Amino acid sequence: MHNADPWEILTRPDNPLSPLAPGALIGILLGAAMLILEGFAALWLFLTGCLTIQLVRKTRMDLSADGLTFRFPGAVMTTGWENVQGVKAKKYFFGLREYEALVLAEPTRQTLAWWFPFWSRQPVREIPLSMFPDWRERELGAAARRYAPGILENGKG
What we know:
The chain has 3 helices and 7 strands; from the N terminus they run H-H-E-E-E-E-E-E-E-H.
């Protein structure tokens, strides 16, 4: 028995499906390409998720009587307590999500890594607080009440 090549059978002139052969091949190739791209997309989402978790885990706030220093991978922002005006709830993601931030009178002093995104080199007049759960009841809230009295109690925050 002769084993014929499936492509040869499909493309034979007497096969009623032969006009469909090029389209079938293109469809198969496109389908395979989509699976590969979806695999890369899934890998990309997984890696960016892992990176985001690492960034959040390495974020911290150093507090002293002189001020505070917000540290996260790629950037360090420092400001004195006298520069803190209050706490403001800010909306993002089309207004569906909200986060709190310390609002500053003057931009922070910044030290940025060489690889930090260019758009982040703009002056920063707020320090995000959303990655510090229950910050008002913890050390950060206590330091704010101690060194910048009134920013939480006087309706500013």
